[in-house]
Design a protein that fits this description.
Largest sheet: 7 strands, parallel
Radius of gyration: 18 Å
CATH class: Alpha Beta
Strand content: 5-15%
CATH architecture: 3-Layer(aba) Sandwich
Oligomer: single chain
Strand order of the largest sheet: 3-2-1-4-5-6-7
Distance between the termini: 48 Å
CATH topology: Rossmann fold
Shape: globular
CATH superfamily: NAD(P)-binding Rossmann-like Domain
Order of helices and strands: EHEHEHEHEHEHEHH
Number of domains: 1
Helix content: 40-55%
Number of helices: 8
Number of strands: 7
Structural class: alpha/beta
């Protein structure tokens, strides 16, 4: 096995995941990349000049627990136990609880954003514990700090991600395995390009990836990126419910599936 460090990233075919893959490749890391769109991912890796030694590509949907376990085992067999695992795959769709079909959207959101994260980490935990080192990175969102009208599925799933990573961090204390929770603000990705509301402090994926890379390297347990959104989120957290409701009244809602 190569002595260069290895990073395992889900949702690597676009947006934040692809930007993180590019940043780690730039730093000389080997890549283990996972996405449903395996062919697209291979094409991207080849376009970056990655060889088979530089990048392994695994096709899997994070909602498929067996497929994710198999991808993890395949990564360990072919490339070794990763030094960093980034559970980045996620979806963001607006819902209306009055609409029956939107309940399936909520189920899919939780399966992807929360259970998919646990499925991403699962194959590597025993090996990382045995080795006594490793970093598990959960990509949450500032949307997980307070609920926004029309964002019930996304906000609640990201709140669950924050709590899940906090729980996992406590479970792994003293094992040598770190847990890093990153909360992006607004990032210019396919998930946000159709939003019909203002997006303050919008970052390009490459800038987010740079800041995320530094936070992960530092072993930061919790980081909002950019920091300005962390201030906004803390202020929102402090607002009494009646005041928050007035502030959010009339705010455009996230597009529902099919809109």
């Amino acid at each position: 096995m190569s002595q260069r460090p290895l990073v395992f990233i889900t949702g690597a075919s676009s947006g934040i995941g692809q930007a993180l893959a590019a940043r780690y490749a730039q730093a000389g890391w080997r890549l283990a990349l996972v996405a449903r769109r395996e062919a697209e991912l291979r094409t991207w890796a080849e376009a970056q000049g990655c060889t088979a030694e530089d990048a392994g590509v695994y096709g899997a949907d994070v909602r498929d627990l067996a497929a994710m376990a198999a991808a993890g085992r395949a990564c360990i067999a072919a490339q070794g136990v990763p030094d960093v695992v980034i559970a980045n795959a996620g979806i963001s769709v607006g819902i209306d609880t009055e609409v029956f079909e939107d309940l399936e959207v909520m189920r899919s959101t939780f399966e992807t954003n929360v259970i998919g994260m646990a499925a991403t980490f699962h194959p590597f935990l025993s090996a990382m514990r045995e080795r006594g080192s490793g970093t598990l990175v959960g990509i949450a969102s500032v949307a997980g700090i307070r609920g926004l009208p029309g964002h019930g599925a996304y906000c609640s799933s990201k709140a669950a991600v924050i709590s899940y990573c906090e729980s996992l961090r406590g479970e792994l204390r003293g094992s040598g395995v770190r847990v890093v929770t990153l909360l992006p603000g607004y990032i210019a990705t396919p998930l946000t390009q159709r939003n019909r509301y203002g997006m303050p402090f919008l970052l390009q994926p490459e800038e987010f990836a740079e800041r995320a890379f530094r936070a992960i390297e530092a072993g930061t347990s919790y980081r909002v990126i950019p920091w300005q959104m962390g201030v906004v989120a803390k202020l929102m957290r402090l607002l009494p419910n009646p005041l928050l409701d007035r502030v959010l009244a009339g705010r455009p809602r996230k597009r529902r599936q099919g809109e």
